[in-house]
């Protein structure tokens, strides 16, 4: 079917050509007459930074881009070069590059892909996009020269782009990496999420306490996106369900929502490597069907007249609103259903317009649920198939369970999402009916298999039921996603094994082939090429430019691990990044650090299981040791922390406060001088990570074994040459297997050891008694040494460690101290250190998200690459 015919039929193209409808139309208020003449195919010029930095791009290309930027500045932004701000230059540059993305779209085969992937995620932590677009289009040096000819610095323009903080951490960043990799290796795909007005909060510190402020990334618009008012869907909430007989023995139910909200699409192009493929990230904005009740407004109730609008728009207002209240829980559920329903309506409409028969959906669409946030897709897709398309239950269930796939990201009980049945029945009454029926048929099947006579059959039914009735009736969203998916995957080998033996043990026993492993990966284009151009240039010179296309060629760097000339240049490239980070630290915290010191980095969401507290306690113990032996030859070390605590997570906020109070005491102590500095960088973000990761010497991956699903920060840091100190948790195990046990520092209990230890009594007290160093550090913290204005401030932390210690910090402390002193010794042997670092960079190729996506495509989605 021709593109124009499909458009008239109501379809929105996705995958390789989904942007054409929107991109070819001007953005609101934009004059496109100044755009350069479009070519019939996308061309790629390898950026000069990968070869010789001094090599200029062709004069014509620079002139074309310069005039395009100048035109956008005048006609789209309405500014002259003399009046333009840095943000204006960024917007003009982004719009000019966006035209070239259109060129890449035009170059793509316009035929309908045989199968598309739809990636549903509540988070897409995409960060800044300018550097990605330039790099993947091969226009880094062209853009630099074009801006320079206008008297503008590219670095300044890049810095003016706000971070799109549409995620909390690894989950959202993984989704962003996967979207980029799918475009780079040619998988037709669309990502679906929410266009939050305010992403993850902006973090500041007030007297050492975390304060949250709205993240206003959309304050001046988003030049990358295309508003798609033609792709608008109605989302219902509440109301009632009716039944009607349509034929003998056939009863149809119909849902009449009490409230409806509009989901309006906004498309962000995702450019693949060398611009060969462009996929789409479609983000939904919530709007009210009746923005203003005019009669009510004219009657004087000006606030009440817009209340419905405000209630609707609240859905896409803030990422992760606090769920500590009943209203907050309801808003979270509204968000999840809102974006899931809009996405399913969109992709089903597209499929029907292209293929005609909804029964073939699973043959042409693979839907991936990124964690349980979109798990409501199971009953929602059933509802769409049953009510909107008239399928029988068995046919709808066959389509649903062969189209949906589910990625689990956590084994933590508190993170396994459940919803009160009462809330679900009130907000989504039709969906609860469907869930009840799915569950009834599921439990009946257990009886048909003759399990009634088994011992503890009732307990078995309770464990596999979609409804948890142990502490109030709640819908288990993980169980729902598991039951409705064709494949369920973990994100590291250990995590997948633990899924089979713990949270999904009984469900796994019913379907032993459903759970598969797909270890996470990262995009090397973002986390090596863009974030560390000096190291990338060195790799290209050593093993050839093919390494830009094939990360596997990085393995060739192994041969240079002990080559003095290469080691010297590798160390120099790393040192330059440490100098840059030292400047950022001084600018943002006022703390001066020595770039020649060991940069010890822990950057991630603040959570007790990630054990930032273990790092802080070891810092206190090291501080005490230096004070006790000030003349000893201590390895100079800078401890660098970054991360945000959830607004309602008081214990995590207290850990941040302790880290900052310890930092103040240590950094102000003249006896310690430059042998130990502690830094907590505020407002951790993707762009800040791009500055920290290439400068890190040591990567702290110290979560309690068995509790981190995978991690991706561990991969980014190791790729850039940081050595890992970590537990045998998540992907740390696979990193050890790839880089070699001699090139990583492992400590602490493994997952089996953790499970054995937590069954013992008084393990924390025993560990503290056996470790005078640990006891002294805890005593110093508890005594008020770091909080003289409030001596008992940190007692909640130390008391918890002495009496509960759920995450086994006390048990692992001594081995952690041992590993850290091994690291001190290794740092003093610089030849050995850099050899280990080079081997980490060389051997991380397997952790490319390109590899992950190929595995998903072949083994889960059944998509040809």
UniProtKB/TrEMBL annotation:
Q: What class of enzyme is it?
A: transferase
Q: What keywords would UniProt list here? A: Carbohydrate metabolism, Glycosyltransferase, Pyridoxal phosphate, Transferase
Q: Which cofactor does it need?
A: pyridoxal 5'-phosphate
Q: Does the keyword Repeat apply?
A: no
- InterPro entries membership: Glycg_phsphrylas, Glyco_trans_35, Pyridoxal_P_attach_site
Q: Which reaction does it catalyse?
A: [(1->4)-alpha-D-glucosyl](n) + phosphate = [(1->4)-alpha-D-glucosyl](n-1) + alpha-D-glucose 1-phosphate
Is this entry keyworded Iron?
no
EC no. given is 2.4.1.1
Q: What superkingdom does the record give?
A: Bacteria
State the protein's purpose: Phosphorylase is an important allosteric enzyme in carbohydrate metabolism. Enzymes from different sources differ in their regulatory mechanisms and in their natural substrates. However, all known phosphorylases share catalytic and structural properties. Allosteric enzyme that catalyzes the rate-limiting step in glycogen catabolism, the phosphorolytic cleavage of glycogen to produce glucose-1-phosphate, and plays a central role in maintaining cellular and organismal glucose homeostasis.
Instruction: Give the family, as the similarity comment puts it.
Output: Belongs to the glycogen phosphorylase family.
- Protein name, as recorded: Alpha-1,4 glucan phosphorylase
């Amino acid at each position: 079917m021709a593109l124009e015919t499909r458009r008239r039929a109501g379809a929105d193209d996705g995958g390789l050509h989904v942007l054409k409808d929107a991109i070819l139309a001007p953005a609101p208020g934009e004059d496109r007459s100044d755009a350069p003449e479009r070519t019939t195919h996308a061309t790629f010029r390898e950026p000069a930074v990968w070869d010789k930095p001094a090599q200029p791009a062709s004069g014509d290309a620079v002139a074309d881009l310069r005039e395009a930027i100048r035109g956008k500045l005048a006609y789209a932004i309405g500014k002259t070069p003399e009046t333009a701000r840095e943000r204006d230059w960024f917007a003009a540059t982004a719009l000019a590059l966006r035209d070239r993305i259109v060129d890449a779209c035009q170059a793509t085969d316009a035929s309908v892909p045989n199968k598309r992937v739809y990636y549903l995620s509540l988070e897409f932590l995409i960060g800044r996009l300018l550097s990605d677009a330039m790099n993947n289009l091969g226009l880094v040096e062209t853009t630099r020269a074009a801006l320079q000819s206008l008297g503008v610095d590219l670095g300044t323009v890049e810095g003016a782009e706000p971070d799109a903080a549409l995620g909390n951490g690894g989950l959202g960043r993984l989704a962003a990496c996967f979207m980029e990799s799918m475009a780079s290796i040619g998988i037709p795909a669309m990502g679906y999420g929410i266009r939050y007005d305010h992403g993850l909060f902006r973090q500041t510190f007030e007297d050492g306490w975390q304060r949250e402020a709205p993240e206003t990334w959309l304050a001046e618009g988003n030049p990358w996106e295309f508003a798609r008012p033609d792709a608008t869907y109605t989302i219902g909430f509440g109301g009632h369900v009716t039944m009607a007989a349509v034929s003998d023995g056939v009863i149809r139910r119909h849902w009449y929502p009490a409230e409806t909200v509009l989901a309006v699409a906004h498309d962000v192009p995702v450019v693949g490597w060398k611009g060969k493929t462009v996929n789409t990230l479609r983000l939904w904005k919530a709007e009210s069907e009746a923005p203003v009740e005019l009669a009510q407004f004219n009657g004087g109730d000006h606030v009440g007249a817009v209340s419905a609008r405000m209630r609707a728009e609240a859905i896409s207002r803030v990422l992760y609103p606090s769920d500590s209240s009943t209203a907050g829980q309801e808003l979270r559920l509204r968000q999840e259903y809102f974006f899931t329903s809009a996405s399913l309506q969109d992709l089903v409409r597209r499929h029907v317009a292209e293929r005609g028969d909804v029964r073939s959906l699973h043959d042409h669409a693979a839907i991936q649920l990124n964690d349980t946030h979109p798990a409501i897709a199971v009953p929602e897709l059933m509802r769409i198939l049953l009510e909107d398309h008239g399928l029988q239950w068995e046919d709808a269930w066959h389509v649903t369970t062969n189209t949906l796939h589910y990625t689990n990201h956590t084994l933590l009980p508190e993170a396994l999402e459940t919803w009160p049945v009462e809330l679900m029945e009130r907000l989504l009454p039709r969906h609860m009916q469907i869930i009840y029926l799915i569950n009834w048929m599921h439990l009946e099947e257990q009886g048909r298999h003759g399990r009634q006579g088994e011992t503890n059959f009732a307990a078995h039914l309770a464990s596999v039921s979609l409804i948890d009735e142990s502490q109030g009736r709640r819908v288990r969203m993980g169980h729902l996603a598991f039951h409705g998916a064709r494949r369920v995957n973990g994100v590291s080998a250990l995590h997948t094994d633990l899924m089979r033996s713990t949270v999904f043990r009984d469900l796994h026993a019913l379907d032993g082939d459903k759970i598969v492993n797909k270890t996470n990966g990262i995009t090397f284009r973002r986390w090596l090429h863009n974030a560390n151009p000096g190291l990338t240039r060195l790799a290209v010179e050593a093993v050839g430019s093919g390494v830009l296309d094939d990360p596997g060629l990085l393995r060739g760097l192994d041969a240079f691990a002990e080559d003095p000339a290469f080691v010297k240049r590798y160390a120099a490239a790393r040192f330059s990044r440490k100098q840059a980070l030292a400047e950022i630290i001084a600018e943002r915290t006022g703390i001066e650090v020595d770039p020649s010191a060991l940069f010890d980095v822990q950057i991630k969401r603040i959570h007790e299981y990630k054990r930032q507290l273990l790092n802080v306690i070891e810092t206190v113990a090291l501080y005490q040791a230096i004070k006790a032996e000030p003349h000893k030859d201590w390895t100079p070390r800078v401890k660098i922390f970054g991360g945000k605590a959830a607004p309602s997570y008081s214990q995590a906020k207290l850990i941040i406060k302790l880290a900052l109070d310890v930092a103040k005491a240590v950094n102000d102590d003249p006896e310690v001088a430059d042998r130990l500095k502690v830094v907590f960088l505020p407002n951790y973000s993707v762009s800040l990570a791009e500055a920290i990761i290439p400068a890190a010497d040591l990567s702290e991956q110290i979560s309690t074994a068995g509790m981190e699903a995978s991690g991706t920060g561990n991969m980014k840091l190791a790729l850039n040459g940081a050595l890992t100190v970590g537990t045998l948790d998540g992907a740390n195990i696979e990193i050890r297997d790839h880089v070699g046990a001699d090139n990583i520092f492992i400590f602490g209990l493994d997952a089996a050891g953790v499970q054995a230890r937590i069954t013992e009594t008084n393990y924390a007290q025993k560990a503290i008694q056996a470790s005078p160093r640990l006891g002294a550090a805890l005593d110093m913290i508890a005594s008020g040494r770091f909080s003289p204005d409030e001596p008992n401030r940190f007692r909640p932390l130390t008391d918890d460690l002495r009496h509960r210690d759920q995450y086994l910090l006390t048990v692992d402390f001594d081995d952690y101290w041992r590993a850290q002193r091994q690291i001190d010794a290794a740092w003093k042997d610089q030849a050995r250190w850099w050899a280990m670092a080079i081997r980490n960079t060389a051997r991380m190729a397997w952790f490319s998200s390109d590899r992950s996506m190929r595995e998903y495509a072949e083994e889960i989605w059944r998509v040809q690459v």
